[in-house]
Amino acid sequence: MSVKKITITPEYLSIYVAGRRNVKIPLHMDRRGIFSSPDCINVPALYWNDGDTSVTFGPILEIKETREPDFDGILNTPNNELILFDAIEPEFASTHVPSQKTRIRIWIDHPSEPENVTVAWG
């Protein structure tokens, strides 16, 4: 699997990383930073009126980040699938993962409205 680079414009200021569809999205009124549950990770995005959010999505062995991730945790992936989506778009990207629990690392360049998001698994 190679790294995917996508440009998105989510209407609701966030994108979600999950191991299956129809998950409960973790929310917080502060809207700053990354919020997670065992089944879903809520990642902030740039406000759609301000422009696009650039997302890099790939295996950790192919991601070259120089600092510690803003999020590092384990996500349930019961169908051996990892999905990137938002409140309107059912799938921006997806990939097969080798196990039913997957380590996810995420980097963002701003705590509430990042222009650049990197999601790595493995």
Q: Quick recap of the structure?
A:
This protein is mainly beta. The protein contains no helices and ten strands. A hairpin with a 3-residue loop joins strand 3 (35-36) and strand 4.
Protein described:
The mean pLDDT is 94. The strands form two sheets. A five-stranded mixed β-sheet has the order 1-5-10-9-6, with no helix packed on it. With 122 residues, the chain is mostly beta strands. It has no helices and ten strands. Helix content is 0%, strand content 43%.
Secondary-structure-based class equals mainly beta
β-strand number: 10
Rg (C-alpha, Å) = 13 Å
Main β sheet profile: 5 strands, mixed
Q: SSE order in H/E notation?
A: EEEEEEEEEE
Number of helical segments with 4 or more residues: 0
- The percentage of residues in β strands lies in 35-45%
Helical content stands at under 10%
Topology of this structure?
Elements: E1 4-8, E2 14-18, E3 35-36, E4 40-44, E5 53-59, E6 71-76, E7 81-85, E8 93-96, E9 101-108, E10 116-121
Parallel strand pairs: 5-10
Antiparallel strand pairs: 1-5, 2-4, 2-7, 3-4, 6-9, 7-8, 9-10
Keywords:
122 residues; mainly beta; 5-stranded antiparallel sheet
